[in-house]
Amino acid sequence: MAERVQRQLSAILAADVAGYSRLIGLDEEGTLARLKVLRGSVIDLKEHRGRIVKTTGDGLLVQFGGVAE
User: Fold this and answer.
1) Cα separation, 39 vs 35, whole angstroms
2) Residue 68 has pLDDT above 70, yes or no
3) Is 26 buried (19+), middle (13-18) or exposed (0-12) by CB count in 10 A?
4) How is residue 66 annotated by DSSP?
5) What is the pTM of this model?
6) N or C: which end of the chain has fewer CB within 10 A?
7) Closest among 42, 33, 34 to 15, alpha carbons compared
8) Residues 6+ away with beta carbon under 8 Å from 23
């Protein structure tokens, strides 16, 4: 008997900071601190039931349960 495949419909957000390399070059500690604050305030994940899948430097990959979220 074949195993049943579970499928899930999601909305994905991929974000990136413009000028990140330049900002890091000018002020690494300040840029990283500001990025940490912005990640928590720009996208209200709890309100929209999203979850961070992956972060890479200035990149962010977020999954939402659907477009309405």
Assistant:
1) 6
2) no
3) exposed
4) S
5) 0.66
6) N
7) 42
8) 17, 31
Per-residue tokens: 50: 């999203």
Contact 43, 62 (CB under 8 A): yes
Tokens 């500001």 locate to 34
pLDDT band with cut points at 50, 70 and 90 for residue 49: confident
Under the banding of pLDDT at 50, 70 and 90, the label for residue 47 is: confident
Distance, CA of 51 to CA of 45 (rounded, Å):
6
Comparing CA positions, the residue from 62, 61, 58 lying closest to residue 46 is 62
Supply 9's token pair: 């419909």
Contact of 43 with 33, CB cutoff 8 Å: no
